[in-house]
TrEMBL record:
Residues 32-398 form the Glycoside hydrolase family 42 N-terminal domain. This is Beta-galactosidase. Residues 624-673 form the Beta-galactosidase C-terminal domain. Keywords: Glycosidase, Hydrolase. CDD domains: A4_beta-galactosidase_middle_domain. It holds the Pfam family Glyco_hydro_42M. It comes from Streptosporangium fragile. The keyword Hydrolase applies.
Length: 679
């Protein structure tokens, strides 16, 4: 699958998707259910509590390999039969997992070659989870045998609604099986060793390969490892995991062609290129755990949700895991204050989710996650968390009008995994310039203005968008650079952040003044990247004389037709452009050569939005209030600490309460309204 085969907004809706699940059920609500941790009498109480809480979907069996196959080749499905029968008879649909994320100890004990090896050559042992090598033939064979029996057993079971393949794929391995698979992958990519040597630049530091068998994964070495070797290994590792996912998926699809298939993503997760994965699933699902201690979490979460929706071509998605309150895997785990569970769930709905699930249903008493919050806490159902869960489950029934509806966006933000991998290699001008920070920096001012954003890969068709933002595209192909140029000439507005267009797909620096492939469209070019002292702000000035500060990064640039809308004011760069705007063809291109403070990036974003003729969901939004349109409904969510009044254009009904609004809406902290215009 290549990125050109991405689903787009115009692709016909696929046969299977969230609609397969929501038909007759409405919004999905539930969580991970691990009944194998409990005696059977608790299952009965669980199902009663689930029904009372409005739960209609649970994920079962994620970590049950050892329970189903207690010794090699054995099968114990009896307990799982009873779980599925119980849930099915209660009308609760099952998202049944292939339990292959955590093989039993017997697999690693008898076949240590199935265990992953880190870059230092250390084997990672059983006793936790994820201890598998995606390229191990033994792991593959054992996993597929189990998945085959699982699918044969539950095909046609009335409770089976969705397949959940593995869990949070991301394991990278450096073992000898992986090295062999890496060589096969490289042979397909390069054909012959000479081409590989050229692509990897092995003339440098005497790294030339004379035989394929000399090539290994980028294992720990005395000093900085070849960046192209590492980039290719990242590409390979994502593909190797995908190959395993596809093998399991194909077994399931052959036996249950009418049951949709997903695997749970992790947002902006670096090791896996989700643009290549998403088209291989029927439903895109995500696990997302906002940090209650992170003041930027509402914007970070919105960005993540927009990415997940975009991965599925704009179609509804499933929030597979979130926490009802504190997690247990950060060093210090804040609980969610009252109302936060609801606010965060509804934020996902606003951004296109048609299902909201939690990790997990009942809190574990043993194991590594016994201090992770759950929908039923250790203290039982008579608790504030469970009360919030119940209230939330009940109110979701009121949101049926949004189910299946789209979240339209006129702004696209470009995100590319290989460029991310290449950017963050060692040995660059500054490791303070990171991709997630850049994405959030450019996303935030759009989010604050109620502007919805789609994420797109660099190869996407951009014609549907009025504004395209490229926070960073360090690695860019000639073809993608030409497409961005055409987009601007055709009337589009483009904003490009610093250190973009630097290397080609082999991660070789492009020669000539930078950014070489975007120089013409940006109407500017540079000769030196100049990271700034970390303890001193970079001072800049807009053309109207007002000042702002930036940080970390500057570039020595000349305008070549672009108008410098802001300049640096100090040091060697005094008077040189910091931000440029270029009329090119029928469109406009902006280039930003530093990391402006948030207010300045807000100012720049506001101007680019004017160029693009794009306005937010509402003309006026108090700080902390998020506004998102989904289908006929305008969601307003107050992430701020104070009560606010938001003017709204039309009388509307708040779907969540059934009450009518006037010309303004009052929102207490953590309040949400879902406004459907009246009349
Ligand atoms: C997810 C994982 C779950 C559980 C959860 C805890 O990453 O899929 O199994 O570990 O985190 O937050």
């Amino acid at each position: 699958m290549t990125v050109t085969e991405q689903p787009t907004k115009d692709s016909p809706p696929p046969r299977l998707g969230m609609h397969t699940l929501t038909a007759g059920r409405g919004l999905l609500f539930g969580g991970d259910y691990n009944p194998e941790q409990w005696p059977e009498h608790v299952w009965v109480e669980d199902v009663e509590l689930m029904q009372a809480a409005g739960v209609n979907l649970v994920t079962v069996g994620v970590f049950s390999w050892a329970r189903i196959e207690p010794e090699p080749g054995a099968r114990d499905f009896g307990w799982l039969d009873r779980v599925l029968d119980l849930l099915g008879s209660a009308g609760i649909a099952v998202d049944l997992a292939t339990p292959t994320a955590s093989p039993p100890p017997w697999l690693g004990h008898r076949w240590p070659q199935t265990l992953p090896v880190d870059e230092s050559g250390h084997r990672l042992w059983y006793g936790s989870r994820n201890q598998f090598c995606p390229s191990s033939p033994v792991y593959r064979e054992r996993a597929l045998a189990l998945v085959t029996d699982l699918a044969d057993r539950y095909a046609g079971h009335p409770a089976l609604a969705l397949w959940h393949v593995g869990n949070e794929y991301g394991q990278v391995c450096h073992c000898d099986d992986s090295a062999a698979a890496f060589r096969t992958w490289l042979r397909e990519r390069y054909g012959d060793l000479g081409t590989l040597n050229d692509a990897w630049g092995t003339t440098f530091w005497s790294q030339r390969y004379s035989d394929w068998d000399e090539i290994v994964t980028p294992r720990r070495a005395p000093y900085i490892v070849n960046p192209t070797q590492r980039l290719d290994f990242s590409r390979f590792s994502s593909d190797a995991l995908l190959a395993h996912y596809r093998a399991e998926r194909d077994v399931l699809r052959a036996r249950t062609p009418d049951t949709p298939i997903t695997t749970n993503f992790m947002g902006l997760f670096k090791p896996v290129d989700y643009w290549s994965w998403a088209p291989e699933e029927d439903i895109v699902s995500n696990d997302w755990y906002p940090d209650p201690a992170d003041p930027l979490s509402p914007a970070r979460t919105a960005l993540t949700h927009d990415l997940i929706r975009s991965l599925g071509g704009g179609r509804p998605w499933l929030l597979m895991e979130q926490s009802p309150s504190a997690v247990n895997w950060r060093p210090h785990n804040l609980p969610k204050p009252a109302g936060q569970l609801r606010l965060e769930s509804l934020q996902a709905v606003a951004h296109g989710a048609d299902g909201l699930c939690y990790f997990q249903w009942r809190a574990s008493t043993f194991g590594s996650e016994r201090f992770h919050a759950a929908m039923v806490p250790h203290a039982g159902p008579d608790t504030r968390i469970h009360a919030e869960v119940r209230a939330h489950g009940a109110e979701l029934r009121r949101l049926d009008p949004v189910v299946g509806t789209p979240v339209p966006a006129k702004v696209a933000m470009v995100h590319d995994w290989p460029s991310w991998w290449a950017l963050e290699e060692r040995g660059r001008p500054s490791d303070r310039l990171t991709l997630p920070d850049q994405l959030l920096a450019y996303y935030r001012p759009l989010w604050e203005r109620g502007v919805t954003v789609d994420l797109v890969p660099p190869s996407a068709d951009l014609t549907a968008y009025e504004l395209v933002v490229v926070p960073n595209l360090y690695l860019i192909s000639d073809r993608d650079a030409a497409a961005l140029t055409r987009y601007v000439h055709g009337g589009g507005v483009l904003v490009v952040g610093p250190f973009s267009g630097v290397v080609d797909p082999h991660s070789h620096v492009r020669t000539g003044r930078f950014p070489a492939p975007l120089r013409e469209v940006l109407g500017a070019s540079g000769e030196e990247w100049m990271p700034a002292p970390e303890d001193r702000p970079v001072r800049c000035r807009w053309a109207d004389g007002t000042g702002f500060t930036a940080r970390i990064w500057t570039e020595l640039l000349d305008a070549e037709g672009a108008e410098p809308v802001a300049v640096f004011t100090e040091g060697d760069l005094a008077g040189r452009p910091a931000v440029l705007r270029h009329r090119a063809g029928a469109g406009t291109a902006w280039y930003v050569a530093t990391l402006p403070e948030p207010d300045a990036l807000g100012e720049l974003t506001a101007r680019a939005l004017v160029d693009a003729g794009v306005t937010g969901a509402l003309p006026e939004l108090p700080p902390g209030v998020e506004a998102v349109r989904r289908g006929p409904v305008l969601f307003l969510l107050n992430h701020g600490a104070g009560t606010v009044h938001v003017p709204v254009p039309h009388p509307a009904e708040d779907l969540l309460t059934g009450s009518a609004t006037g010309d303004r809406v009052t929102l207490a902290p953590r309040a949400v309204v879902a406004l459907r215009p009246l009349g």
